[in-house]
Structure formats: structure tokens, C-alpha cells
Amino acid sequence: MTRHCHRCGREWTFDRPPGRNDTCDQCRADLRVCLNCRHYDPKGAQQCRETRAEPVADKDRANYCEWFDFARRAYTPSGDRDRAAEARANLKRLLGD
To answer: Alpha carbon of 72 to those of 13, 38, 81, 93: distances in Å?
Structure first.
């Protein structure tokens, strides 16, 4: 279990949590984001299990949430999917082409 970037998986090796302006050294993604927080829950209300937190619209953008706690988890890459090609294939299948 590591603390890592939600986008590329690069491990956060510092002892402190990331600050508002900290970005991933590899992909330049913001690190103090909902997607990196242990309270993030895509199935929960406002996608957050912390009931005292203010709602955040952009879960992948840096924010000032005072309840941020960098999650420790195993990295699972989302894969490099070609979503446009998948959409075309689904449309062809739907239309019978």
C-alpha cells in the first residue's frame, strides 16, 4: 500500500501530505485532490465519506479541503483505452454494421 498519484501511479515519497500547489513529478497532475483522498467514495453523497467536508466539483483538481488525508492503496492502472474507437465499435454494433 502506497501513497501515489491517481493518474500515473508515481509514489509520493515525502513524509508530509502534498500541499495545494504540489504536482506529480511524472505527469504533472495535482496531488491534493479528492481522487487521492482516503475519504473519496465514488458511490457516496458528493463522492465523499467525510460529512463535514464542503462539496468539491472537480475531483481531479487541487482544492483547499481541510479533511484531505492522502490515501494509502495499491495502484491499479486504468489502462490506455481508446474511448473514441470503443464508441465507434459500440455504434456499429448497435446499428448492425
So the answer is: 12, 7, 25, 40
